[in-house]
Amino acid sequence: MIRTTVPTSVRKGAALAGIAGLLVLAGCSGAADAESNADTGTNPEPTTSSAPADDAATDSAYKDGTYTAEGSYQTPETVEKISVTLTLADGVVTDVEVTGDPQAPETEKFQGEFVAGIADVVEGVPIDELKVDKVAGSSLTSGGFNQALETIKEEAAA
Length: 158
Prior knowledge:
This protein is of the alpha+beta class. It has one domain (about 1-158). The chain is built from 3 helices and 3 strands. The protein has a 3-stranded antiparallel β-sheet with strand order 1-2-3. About 25% of the residues are buried.
């Protein structure tokens, strides 16, 4: 079995760097908007917020925890399986790990690319907004991921 995972610390470091850059830019934009509207007396609608827009995030339909499920998908050569482990907090994916046991050499390549890119796609996203299509050039692996995701949603339902 080939276990291809990217350490969470590496994924989170890259994600945090990107988020920090966005927050700096958002802060600059908000200040400029406030100055441009000072003469009119109007307040612009906020474009970003550190608090949830509504109470839906805190009243999640899913129980916090770590869930694992398997999914399968058809390749031209064989049926492949992957295992997906998601950690949820307030209905949002906070961590993901995908492992596989590729049966074909080409599958090993594509599963590895999928595993390397999946965290950037799903971490920080509400589970109900997830439907993975193509990750890092791998489109078939997404079918197995989405199948496992549906099982995890059922298991995590509050």
